[in-house]
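REVIEWER CHECKLIST
Item 1: Sequence provided? yes
Item 2: Single chain? yes
Item 3: Sequence as submitted:
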Amino acid sequence: MIEILLENFNPENRPFVWLVSAFILAFIIAYQTFPTILYVAKEKHLMDEPDSRSMHSNKTPTLGGIGIFFSIVVVLTIVGAMLNTKVLLLVMGALTILFFLGLKDDLTILSPRKKFIGQLLAALLLIVFTDTRIIGFSKILDVDMLPYWVSIFFTLFVYILIINAYNLIDGVDGLAGSIALLISAVFSVLFYKSGALSLATISVALIGALLAFLRYNFSSGKKIFMGDTGSMIVGFLLAFFTISFISQSQLNTDSQYFRASPALAIAMLFYPLMDTCRIFFIRIFILRKSPFEADRNHVHHRFILYGYTHLQTTLAIVLINFIIIIIAFNMLHLNLNTQIGLLFVYGAVLYYLPFLIKKRLKKSNN
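Item 4: Structure as written out by the authors:
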C-alpha cells in the first residue's frame, strides 16, 4: 500500500500541503535537537566566553548551527527522492562543507583564508553544476548581459558578500535569525508562486529550523547562539535563494520580476548589505584600520547604545527591513535604476528614524 502511495504521489499536485509538511518536520527536528546540543555544550564546556565586544555577560553555547544544519539536511534527505534531486544533493554537499568549517571555527579557530576557500568551493558547486548564476545586470547603469566567465566570477562575489554580510549582523539576540526568517518567508512565497517547489522546500525547511532556533536564542535560561556554523549555513542559503531568484527572473521574459529582481534582492538583504558597507567605510576611512577587525560600530550596536533592548533592536530592524521590502514590491513599474536609488533613500530615512525618536524622547523627558 505504501509503495502504491509513493508511486502515485506527486508533490506538485499538492504543493501547499507538501511545503507545510516540510516546515513542520524541520521545526520538530530542530526543536527536539537543541536541548541535546545545550546539554552536551554545557557538559563539555563548549561555551562562548564574554569579552569586551560581547553583547552578553554569561557563558553561552554557540553550537546552534548544528541543530539548523541537522534539521535542514534531514528534511532534504527525506523529500529529495520526490523533487529535483540534483539541486538538493548539491545544496546538501555545499552545506556539509560549510558545516564542518563553521564547527571547527566554533570549537577552535579557523583561519579566514580557509573559511574563504570553503565558501568559494561551496558556491562553485551550485554555480557550475546547476548553472544557477546572475547572467546580467538587468540594465543597471545600462549594463545588460555579462560574458560567461564574468557572470561566474560576479555570482561568486555575490555569494561571498551575502555570506559574510549575514555573519556580521549576528550581534544581538534574535537579529540574525529573525532577518533570515523574514527573507526566507518572502522567498518561499516567490518560489511557491513560480512553481519552483525544490527551492520553496529548502526555504520552508530553513523557516522551520529558524523558528525553533529563535525559541532558544531569545530564551534567558536556555540561550544558544547560532555561531559561525549557523551563520555560514544560513548566509549561504540566503545567497543561494537570492541568486536562484535573480537567475530565474532574468531567464523568464514573461516574469513580472524580469527587470526588477536585483532591486527586490537588495530590498530583502537591505540590512546586512547596508550595515556591511557602512561598517567597512567607518573602519577604512574613519578609523583607518582593517575592515575585518571586529568592533562595536554596527547599526545594531548603535541601537543598544541609544537605549534600546536586544528585543526592541531586533524588532525595529526587522520591521524596517519588512517595510523596505513592501516598498520594493510597490515600485515594480519604475525603471530599475530608479528603484534602487529610491530604496537607498527610503532605507536611510527609515533606519535613521529610531534614533531620531530616541533623541526626541530624551529631550522631552529632560
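Item 5: Key structural point noted by reviewer: The chain has a mean pLDDT of 89.
Item 6: Recommendation: ____
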